[in-house]
Amino acid sequence: MVMLALYTVAKLGKADKTTDKLSRLLCKEPISFSQFVEDYNDVWV
């Protein structure tokens, strides 16, 4: 049921924007996926 709801939201175009709410809440900027992989390289190997 959750997957259907997520798909529907995306299909209707309601998930087409991003916000800065999380970065404001955490008081730090997000990192890139590449940086995440580099930081946690030992988990991937």
Feature tags:
45 residues; mainly alpha
Instruction: Tell me, briefly, the overall form.
Output: flat
Radius of gyration: 15 Å
Mean pLDDT: 91
Report the sheet-strand fraction: under 5%
Helix content: 55-70%
Quaternary structure of the protein: single chain
Total helices: the number is 4
Order of helices and strands: HHHH
Instruction: State the end-to-end CA separation.
Output: 34 Å
Return residue spans where pLDDT drops below 50 for at least 5 consecutive residues. none
Largest sheet: none
Overall SS class: mainly alpha
Short overview:
The chain has 45 residues and is mainly α. The chain has 4 helices and no strands. The model has no long low-confidence stretch (mean pLDDT 91).
Structure, explained:
It is a single chain. This protein has 45 residues and is an all-alpha fold. The protein has a domain of 30 residues. It is built from 4 helices and no strands. The termini are far apart.
Task: Set out the fold topology.
Layout: H1 2-11, H2 21-26, H3 33-39, H4 41-44
